[in-house]
Every structure is written in structure tokens, then in C-alpha cells.
Amino acid sequence: MPGRRVPFGRVAMVATPLFLLAIHPAPSSRPEPPVLASGPALPSLAAFDAWLAPAGARRATPVVTPADLAGALGAPARRMALFAVEDAAERAARRLLEDLPYGASIGAAAERHRLDPLLVAAVVKVESRFSPRAISPRGAVGLMQVLPTTAARYGRADLHDPHENLDSGCRYLASLLDLYDGDLSLALAAYNAGPAVVARYGGIPPFRETRRYVARVMGRYEESRRRVEEAVMRAEDPFLPSRVTAATKAALR
Known about the structure:
Blueprint: H1 8-23, H2 45-52, H3 66-74, H4 88-98, H5 103-112, H6 117-128, H7 148-153, H8 162-179, H9 184-193, H10 195-201, H11 208-236, H12 246-251
Helix pairs in contact: 4-5, 4-11, 5-6, 5-8, 6-11, 8-9, 9-10, 9-11
């Protein structure tokens, strides 16, 4: 008598769980996961592989190989070109400087001494009207009207050279901002009248020249920052009408 036939579906129902169990043992037999060490050291891929599939279990080709891990951890970080662009405000400020005499040198000196280049440009405008040959009655020289005694501290000799003058002036202005904890009004007053005079009066001295100097520099600085903000607004909304006139542009020159 022919043997009894067993339906294929019933065989599959019994064989499939046994096959899967042979490949992936029960979770209860899995050891504790490897512990992450502190610092740059990481568990090896072999340790994770042993945890995911203990010895004796058949494993498929690993998704991540040791070469993949080494490449991912060792590759230097790269910025996509889409994000390697200047901030809108930085672009607007740079374009504003490009329209000014010695704008590139002003920007380089300001960046070197961690100053806002638009602030330095405002100081140069008020001090010398961008003339590298300007000399004051007190002997201050060049674009930022630096005294020879001040430049001597920084090893600068030729104050008529725009680059040396800007470097000395920016270093001095940066030191004054540090001295007054970032108070721009006091720093500008000291730049004009000297730190000793500011200390004597406990603030901006009551000299018409100094007060007018501080107001002029602050006014031009605020005007240039306003122009940058307007340029950013126009970049965000190209249909926004411009409020910057030729007169304001000329005023900064």
C-alpha cells in the first residue's frame, strides 16, 4: 500500500522555525553586549558580531565591515558646497567694505584683531577720511591717526603705510575694548582722549571734541550696520523696496 502523503504546507510550518533557530539562536543564550569604553576607544566589530551571533551560528555577509567602520571614523569632515557660503550679513558687510578706500586692508586688520570691520571703517572715516597721509596737530598719523608712541609698542615704524597703520590702530582699539569690558563708547572716548583722561573723569570726559568724536563714530557705525540689515532684508525679500539712498552711501565715504 502506498505511503501516506504529508501536505507540504505542514512540513514548512515545522521546518521553517527550526531553520531560523539554527541561524539565530534564542535570545536567552546571547551574552551581555560589549561595554563602550570611555575616550576614543570603541569596541571592535568582532565583539559586536560575537554578541549579535554567538559562535557556531551561521552568519550572512556583514552589512558593515571593518573597512567601512575605519573609513567612516577616519574620513575628515567635509562641508557641502551648499553650506560653505558666507552668511547674508557677512556678504553684505563685505560688499560695503569693497566700496570703501582700503576696504580689503580694513577687513583684514579687523579680522586679525577680532573687531567688526565696519566699526574700524567708521573710525577711519572720522579720523582721517581715508587719507593715509593725514597728520593731526598732536602728531597722530595716517588712516587711524595713530600716535608714534602707540605704534612703537607694537613694533610699527612707518605709520604712513596703510597696512601698518591699520594694524597698530586695530590693536590699540581692541585693547581698549578689553580694558572697558566691551563698552564701545568708553573705548572710543579713550581712543580720542586717552585712557588716563577717561579714568580721571570716570567715563566719557566732558570735552566737546571727545563727545562729538564718540557720537560721529557711533553714528557712522550704526548707519553701516543698518545698511547691512537692509541688504539682508532685501536678499530675503527681493520685492522689498530699498530705503538706502545715494546720500547714505555717500555719507559713509
